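Inputs:
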Amino acid sequence: MPRDGSITRTSIMDSAQQLILNQGFSATSVDSVIEKTGITKGAFYYHFDTKAELALALVERYAALDHEHLEMNMKQAEELSRDPLQQMLIFAGLLKAEMEGLVEPFPGCLYASYCYEAQLFTEDTHQIIENMMLEWRQRLSAKFSEIMEIYPPKLEVTPESLADMILVIYEGVFIMSKTLKEPAMTAVQLGQYRNYIELMFEKPAA
Amino acid sequence: MPRDGSITRTSIMDSAQQLILNQGFSATSVDSVIEKTGITKGAFYYHFDTKAELALALVERYAALDHEHLEMNMKQAEELSRDPLQQMLIFAGLLKAEMEGLVEPFPGCLYASYCYEAQLFTEDTHQIIENMMLEWRQRLSAKFSEIMEIYPPKLEVTPESLADMILVIYEGVFIMSKTLKEPAMTAVQLGQYRNYIELMFEKPAA
DNA sequence: TTATTTATACCGACTAGTTGGTTTAAATAA
DNA sequence: TTATTTAAACCAACTAGTCGGTATAAATAA
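Outputs:
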């Protein structure tokens, strides 16, 4: 029986992702990846035919985690209340809580990293990112449609724009907190999403 | 007297900025910049001692425009109303209006681009970006402090977090709209910032 | 006028080093 | 006995940056 190569494969991907989030894909040479991983070039090219294949594998793994992240929290929220608005508020609260007490290393998003080096990647790589963004939109806008059947929004909004806003805030706050070295910002800004939903739909206090 | 070199210098910077927003700084070789500009290597190195100096010059120019963008719109808002809340709502509305009817090329932010290649830049380059983010925070949180002296916020928030949120939304929506190729998102999401402020502070309709 | 000087602006071949990627043969481990 | 990994040599293409030379045009001088 051969030994388990998936350990090496995983640690290559871990090293590469860290490097990519800090210096971009282009500046992340294969040499720097193997040095950080502590392996040789032969081992790298045993697991990945090309550097582009590594890029694809990374975003596939990242998207799979993102999918789980969305579904796990949404399911949990759906179990904790039967009301769609409460579900949505719980969901936002769970995402906020995840980021509470966050310290270094500052979070970063592979989608954003790839976005600003877009021309270096192939269409299939972009497709994975696009699909995940659309999955968030679909899952959450369906929820907002439910909400809007019960609660009239205080201002004119579409379910899609409310759904999109959470990824907008994630991507934006990652950039801000990384630049200003203020990891605490992340939870605070996610909290403002919760605030917005609450103010948009809940009855004013009597 | 020699001919005007500032034209060449400006067009180098324009080409470089476009390339950097699409493929990152690292992948933007000096060769690709001179090819796009239609000049030679000698001309490039006449205007910039190193590639790093170009990076600095670009972010300096970008930050100067950003400063004007903030001040111009804020001043205009301050002229259109005497009430700080109305000023803030007008300000958000002006920013939204700028992005209305936006088509290709999709907007991108140099701060975000540099953020995901952070390790490639020197401290002074980072400082410019950090200072501009803090300038937005300072200018807007002062305004929110004024607002909160008059209007009680419906939920617990800090002036700083409300101030930060607008850059969060800018950075986030640029990534989303670029990836999904939906330039119209930009104005919509800026509109939601306006909504949030309105809901947070305005009296509910009687 | 006309010739010369001067400073800036620009050219393009060149260098020294790095890149992603390949190949080979041997070593290691289950 | 087969999958995994090492170590090292190798390549063509590309990288940032250099340097001697040239073009431009206004200022100066004969």
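Remarks. The mean pLDDT of chain B is 93. Residues 1-3, 29-31, 41-42, 45, 49-51 of chain B lie near DNA strand D (CB under 10 Å from a C1').
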